[in-house]
Known about the structure:
Strand order of the largest sheet: 2-1-4-5-6-7-3
Number of helices: 3
Helix content: 25-40%
Structural class: alpha+beta
Radius of gyration: 20 Å
CATH class of the largest domain: Alpha Beta
Number of domains: 2
Amino acid sequence: MREIKKILVSICILFVLFSLYLNSVWNNYLFTPFNFVEDDITVGNWKDYKEPIQFDLSNIDEGWKTKTIENTNDIKYIIKELKRSNYSIEENINEEGTHFVLTLRRVGKIDNETDGVLLQFKGSTNGIINVNNQKEKYMTESLKDYIKQELSD
């Protein structure tokens, strides 16, 4: 009976410690080890995406006028929509519209990093965006509308 009690107490302690660890991860990182997928949008390790982070949306056509997006839900929305976007199969795509650069960076003191840049994508409001590995995607309509709205504010 005593052995069972010790085992149950040990299991409860481990459960509490694991719960505290998960809570810390969920509150301090954009991704967890369970929901991070490395692909042409998100590269590196889930631990690289430690908050605080921000997207800088720079309008190239207006002298790199930059708007900062700090809301975590907006950041997750942008990444989710980029992942949902379809790959382009055409070459020499017309990149008319307003040209922009979308840069995800860590804010504050960065260990062993020069500028904290995590991701960077170049695109235009016609819907084309260059992602990692020299690939192009057609932005979803909702992401295109979101980018246009943010650039016009």
